[in-house]
Design goal:
alpha+beta, 4 helices, 6-stranded mixed β-sheet, Archaeosine Trna-guanine Transglycosylase, Chain: A, domain 4, 4-stranded antiparallel β-sheet
Length: 180
């Protein structure tokens, strides 16, 4: 499944079911379910204009305890992680949603927020994270590929490891490692 990296507080607002539009300056034809990845950038969380925009867009919902708790704790929230999922159902250039600013709005439906974020590196635009169920952690984790070199500095093997605990899922040796 594809993932899209989104800055806070937008990523949380989407997964918690408040924000139904993701604004981008590029169009997408993709429709379907995506992972919501939180980028490491925190600039928007510190920007008072962003907070005011969120409060305005939320309207009456801004008074819920959940929002107040989130805004006060926002900077402690997990970054570089997948925090939930949502469906992209349309891509529009106009919308009545208070969250729409353009240029393009990805229309979002059926969000979920995970109880525990999955630590994962992000990329610009859509990307496909490699996730695997770790038997040691007993949860979904990002697969990290670690290259192991021989004494001549040549690639000897690659380990595919759990991004959380380092447990080795699979080792690829010799020639196969070079092709990978
Ligand atoms: Zn693990």
């Amino acid at each position: 499944m594809k993932a899209l990296s989104i800055r806070q507080p937008w990523a949380w607002l989407i997964c918690a079911g408040y924000k139904n539009i993701e604004n981008r300056n590029w169009r997408t034809n993709f429709r379907g379910r995506i992972y919501v990845h939180v980028s490491k950038t925190t600039a928007e969380l510190r920007d008072p204009r962003v907070k005011q925009f969120v409060v305005n867009a939320l309207g009456d919902q801004a008074r819920t305890n959940e929002i107040e708790t989130y805004i006060s704790d926002a900077l402690k929230f997990s970054y570089g992680a997948i925090i939930g999922e949502v469906n992209i159902v349309d891509c529009v250039t106009t919308s009545d949603s208070p969250w729409f600013v353009g240029r393009y709005g990805f229309v979002l439906k059926k969000p979920i927020l995970y109880k525990e974020p999955i630590a994962c590196r992000g990329k610009v635009g859509f990307f496909i994270p490699e996730l695997h169920h770790c038997s040691q952690c007993d949860r979904l984790v990002e697969v990290i590929v670690v290259e192991i070199k021989d004494s001549f500095g040549r690639l000897a093997k690659k380990d595919r490891r759990c991004g959380e605990c380092g447990y080795v899922f699979k080792t690829i040796k010799g020639k196969r490692a070079k092709k990978d």
